[in-house]
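Lab meeting, action items carried over

1. Structure of the two-component assembly. Owner: GW. Status: complete.
Input record:
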Amino acid sequence: MEYILEMNDICKSFSGVKVLDNVSLRIKAGEVHALMGENGAGKSTLMKILMGIYKADSGSISINGEPVTVSGPKDAIAKGISMIHQELNPVLDMEVSENIFIGRELKTSGPIKLVDRASMRKEAEALFQSMDIGINPRTITRYLSVAEMQLVEIVKAISLNSRIVIMDEPTSAITEKEVQVLFQQIKKLKEQGVAIIYISHKMDEIFKISDSITVLRDGTLAGTGRSTDLDPDKLITMMVGREIKEVYPKEETVIKDVVLEVKNLNSGKRVRDVSFRLRSGEVLGIAGLVGSGRSELAETIFGIRPSTSGSILIHGKEVSIRHPKEAIARKMAMITEDRKQTGLNLKTTVEQNISLVSLGKLSKKGIIDKKKEAEAAENYMKSLKIKTFSRKTPVVSLSGGNQQKVVLAKWLLSEPEIIIFDEPTRGIDVGAKRDIYLLIGELAKQGKAVIVISSEMPEVMGISDRILVMCEGSVAGELKREAFTQEAIMNYASARGGKRA
Amino acid sequence: MSERLGIERTRWKDNVREFGILIAFVAIVAVLMIISPDAFAQPKNLIGIVKQASINGILACGMMFVILSDGIDLSVGSTVALAGVMAAHFAHPDTYPVLIPILIGILVGLGVGLLNGIGVAFGGIPPFIITLATMTAVRGVALIASGGSPVYDLSDTFNGIASGFIPGTIIPILAVYFLIIILVSGFILTKTVFGRRIYTIGGNEVAAKVSGINVKRMRLSVYAISGVLAGFAGVLLASRTISGSPTAGQGYELDAIAAVIIGGVSMSGGAGKWYGTLIGALLLAVLANGLDILNVSSNYQMVIKGAIIAIAVLVDIRGKSRNE
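Predicted assembly:
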């Protein structure tokens, strides 16, 4: 059978680092083709090349056997390719019909071309009806659920006459029931001959919905085949390509006294009645689906978001933390989820980012001791193996892994006792990941109390002593290291553990 | 190796960018010196330029703090007027010691600055909006407080604040105020924790907060600084013009912004050097003076000034897009 899409021998490097090495992807019309791989394996880079956001260094793309070059997202859409991003970005204050026709608004006839809202609503209505979706095109997008927004994106893709639809982790933020609705829509698309590239980490889903699977690992093609010929074990071996023990070095540590105790902590609807204890020398993993309140819990503990009730005890004493500076004063540190948004000042140098939290220590009467600052920066650049031209290099020019190490250096310099890592290895390469795992182990060995929030199941299982699983803002279950399995975590995370109604 | 070279080239380019404005400034001065040795190049004229640059320069110092924090202060021109009027009320001969009108002017500026700062930091009002509001309202207050016409009859000591010279020299006292203020500003921005934090909140507000910086207090501080300097500038302008005029300082906020931007401070905050503002303020004054001497009509002068602002920002944007 003819392939609707062929990507052949795609190579791509970013500043000398090869992120895709001879990767090929072949997709037939009317099939759901799952694209899998660990974070950083190159899935999103490959898709961005398909959408024309990046240009491949070498390799070719063919649609229906015809070689094409995709010059950008607009061109991709014109060629029948559209992408539903993991992070949806509709204009929230526009109505649904306007979002569907954004950038190609229908116009009235006549000498003056005005936006024809009535036609747009009518067309949107027809599209929804053809797919049995019960969304009113006049609804302001803000009031839709995430799942509904996703459906709107799918409708938009159809209205663009897309023959190839890329879905990037479409179920990461929606409920089980909504997943069923999504799957029905996917089946309808298949019947119409649309090819779907389905990016997901979730094994059960992949086997339920996909016809073929391609797995990437570290920028190379790890394997491809019919879903019926594969099973989860084979996939994991393909994805990881090595024993998990090697990837996640786990140091034996002595777990001592309780350092942090959280009692019945609430923050609006996002954090509900969370209690746990954290001991010195312990690595506590926090798992859960996106939107389960993990980051919000960490932000509440660290004073970034206000707590509505509950208490936090450090070394047995109740403390009030209403601003990060109070958390820092209590020797806490937080490596936030998004280093570019919340971790770094990209407008300045490596040195000034490292010293930021510890300026008090590096100054006298409010005047910065530049010599001390330089020494501190140089020390951490060496001990964390930060690859940078000099301490004066703008941090923006560093690779993701090295930027993350700058964030780590910033917090380590403040000599914390309690360290919260929120997705510490997101978007960084395997080598840098390993350095960070080793560091987390080392910190625990030094007697620090460590919390690691992670969406990567093997990661959280590999480095934690204990895992809390969150679901809908509360702790759905707790697992000791002996009891770690992906299934157990997923059960709790999807509220199937039975603990919560 | 290629990566290293890439970085080095970036730095070299950064230097050109950083010194570009200085090179432009030196070039303009040199050209004017050559064209007009008898008028422009005279020491008296050169010192006059510095004097000319001073009041705008002082406002630009305050503006620099605000812009570095990713803000803007449109109210400084109106503050100059209100501070001048209020100072003038207390500066009539044989009433109060000269320190009183000076303090009154500064306190007026502080008040406006705090109002802006509270609006931005605690009210969450965008800086452009709140300072546009105070710009309008403060101008109104200045007109009310003066009955709509300038306050005259000021004491000689008050009039001497801005018009004197350093004894035994031809250096105007006004230029000295400016130089002290810009040097202190430079010291604060480059050497102190406070200054570093201004860059940080302008560079990434959220990261600043997560790193323990009290962003609200920092914002309040920068608007207060801008207000205080505008108040002081108002006192100096009243002294120089021997009257407290409610219509003084119109458009001064734009000249101050222009000096800061020409000096290379990023409009989105977080980046820029203090001496850029010094050069920016001097460049504007040199340009006005030089074009006057060359008999360029003020209409054309405005066009040239506008072009220079646009070019300076264009260079700024180029510099940034390369970093991303």
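2. GW to write a short summary for the group page. Key points so far: Chain B has one domain: 2-323. Chain B is about 75% helix and 0% strand.
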